[in-house]
Amino acid sequence: MLKTEQQDTALARIKAETLIESLPWLKQFHGKTIVVKFGGNAMVDDALQQAFAEDMAYLRWIGIRPVVVHGGGPQITARLAELGIESEFRGGFRITTPETIDVVRDVLRQTISARIAGLIEFAGAKTQVMSGEDSNLFRAEKTVLDSPEGPVDIGLVGEVTLVNPRIVFDALEAGRIPVISTVAPDASGQLLNVNADLAASALAVALGAEKLMVLTDVPGLYANWPNRDSLVSEINVAELRELLPSLESGMIPKMQACLQAVEHGVPRAHIIDGRTPHSILLEIFTKSGFGTMVFPTEG
């Protein structure tokens, strides 16, 4: 046998072994729903976007039902700058005016959702773009920021309080991957800009998802940031609740999302480094997993 043939045979054997190794996870997750919050560098890097889209299409075709929820802070900031509108933040929230909310809605749906959906379709799976406005998917309430000086009005910013997942179930039953942007009306119909991490968490609960997976720009949760040796691979709800107030501010909403999902019945939630290509598949189909897993407290 020629050397190239031997190499091809060895590579084929490795591929076969990898497929066999994934079998227990294929059995576990077949037919189950997984909610993925897409964010961080993966949203602005073309190669990472393509890898993510391929992951979503792969999951769909092996019988797992992925749902994509996304934000879009950098893209919104860039678009506002083009329009001569300055971005202002308080406590990690974008101060959202009536002028800003229209830009937020358009960038999220017309630019980001459309691109994600297009890449997934190119990878071979059908999609359906939607937002919290569609078919009463999300209802939100206005958020007031607490500060040492007292409550701070941050404008048209809200938090999801009610989920009607019928439109998402219908898309999944039709074999489509929902791609969801996170703006939502309040009880009066006023559109609000809502946190995508927490919206993904609320949706995972409403769908009875098997997993919530939150992509970010770090390897996982650090118990004592910036100490790189404090990376946590697994943490239960009680431990996370105790640790939460001491976390770096940017990680708090992501860990809140994981905490709330698991507290309300989602079996597992994960923080995953979206800078690694195919990180979704690495987490689902390898023994060691990837990132930080949040699981229920026993007893």
Describe the structure.
The protein is of the alpha/beta class and 299 residues long. It has ten helices and 16 strands. The strands form four sheets. The protein has an eight-stranded mixed beta sheet with strand order 5-8-2-1-11-15-16-14, with helices on both faces. The longest helix has 26 residues, at 98-123. It is globular and about 70 Å long. The model has no long low-confidence stretch (mean pLDDT 90).
Summarize the amount of helix as a percent range. 40-55%
- Main beta sheet: 8 strands, mixed
Q: How many helical stretches? A: 10
| Total strand segments | 16
Uncertain stretches of 5 or more adjacent residues: none
Sum up the structure in keywords:
alpha/beta; eight-stranded mixed beta sheet; single chain; four-stranded mixed beta sheet
